Amino acid sequence: MISISLCMIVKNEEDTIERCLNSVGDLVDEIVIVDTGSTDQTKSIVRKYTKHIYDFVWVDDFAMARNYAFNQASKDYIFWLDADDILKEKDRVSFAALKETLDPSVDSVTMCYHLAFDEFGEVAFSCRRNRLVKRSNRFQWIGSVHEYLEVWGSILNSDVAVTHNSTHHDNDRNLRIYENRLSKGEQFSPRDMYYFANELMDHGRTEEAICCYEKFLTSGKGWVEDNISACGKLADLFHKLGDQQNELRSSLRSFEFGPPRAEFCCRLGYHFLQQNDIQSSIFWYNLATQLEHPKESWGFANPACSTWLPHLQLCVCYDRLEKYELAYQHNEAARRYRLDDERILQNKRYLDAQLTGSKWP
Fold it and tell me: Which enzyme class, named as a word (predicted)?
């Protein structure tokens, strides 16, 4: 059985660190904590779990801090988490089984990262990350912000999921780092330009974000998943500005980088529904029901767009055409995914009335 070092970088995480370590501490053989300047009770809490606590002077570089943490590890494999991540019980079981059975020839194990949930507790936003890596390979983190772990060799895609459960966040930190780098005359890589655009978008700096996404896409050097994501974010920004033409163009632009994704089919379905072009809307929503997020893709995914959402929208479309039987069928398809969604239940009551000729309030 392999041995595992958990490596984390933290700062002022007293509200979350105990929850995180409780979820994983008994599954690893060593816990390495690198503190980048906590002024709260973080280190006092961590001492209950490990003696391997190191101070690191923060220099606005996440990769440098993570690489330092990795350098302190001593076990066969390194597992990394943020303080507001946890393993849920089913994933604890899967992690334990993985530890028991992992072939030591594997260089990296990927895990799903569940970032957001809907009102029913279902995953609404997720991606995949390299999470467990062979220490002897000395894999390195790259990037001062939105850093990534550069790996190679034999990679196993596991069924373990890490759940992000944030309670607080320094919303300006990443933007400050990027702007400080720009003020020093640094030329951004395409990846940096993409994430800088994300920060500008999140801070409501719409026009600047549009310019950055355009600069990123026209460079022709971006990672395909970032290219596709940038198209979606541009569509959102143009929607915010009420620019329907450029919103449509941005959604269609995603097809330059790969086959249609369900998320973009739903965007197009919504666009044509707003134009009252019901047949075009039906075409795109129907296509969305036939597509799943590519299994080998590492990009962000919204499962709703390939499950219940297009069926719910098709129900709306067919209702407008007074094709109540088809509307009912799609509403039932949506209900299979969300049994307690009041919108879907309301539709069912309404369509039951339409199909039986009974009175509808």
Answer: transferase
Residue 152: half-sphere exposure toward Cβ, Cα within 13 Å: 5
What residues does 110 pair with on adjacent strands?
130, 157
Return the closest-CA partner of residue 73 out of 144, 137, 11: 137
Give the domain CATH number at 315: 1.25.40
64 phi and psi angles, rounded to 5 deg: -60, -40
Per the CB < 8 A criterion, the answer to whether 148 and 128 are in contact is no
Claim to verify: residue 35 and residue 129 sit in the same structural domain? yes
**Interior angle at CA 325, CA 324 and CA 331, nearest 5:** 85
**Do 158 and 59 belong together in one domain?**
yes
Cβ atoms of 242 and 235 within 8 Å: the answer is no
Q: Closest Cα partner for 38 from 17, 16, 13?
A: 13
- Give me the sign of the Cα torsion angle 275, 280, 286, 289: negative
Query: Is residue 292 in some structural domain?
Result: yes
For residue 360, the SS3 value is coil
Alpha carbon distances (Å) from 325 to 81, 179, 206, 340, 353 = 49, 56, 43, 21, 12
Candidates 67, 203, 223; CA nearest to 140 is: 67
32, 60, 161, 280 from 2: Cα distances, Å:
17, 34, 19, 54
Same domain, 32 and 69: yes
> Would you state the pLDDT for residue 107?
98
pTM above 0.85, yes or no: yes
CATH number for the domain that contains residue 210: 1.25.40.10
Give the pLDDT confidence of 56-106 residue by residue, as tens digits. 999 999 999 999 999 999 999 999 999 999 999 999 999 999 999 999 999
* CA of residue 169 relative to chain centroid, distance: 16
Same domain as 291, residue 238: no
H or E stretch at 253: helix 244-253
How far from the centroid of its chain's Cα atoms is residue 6's Cα? 22
Q: Are 91 and 162 in contact (CB under 8 A)?
A: yes
Domain of 49, in residue numbers: 4-164
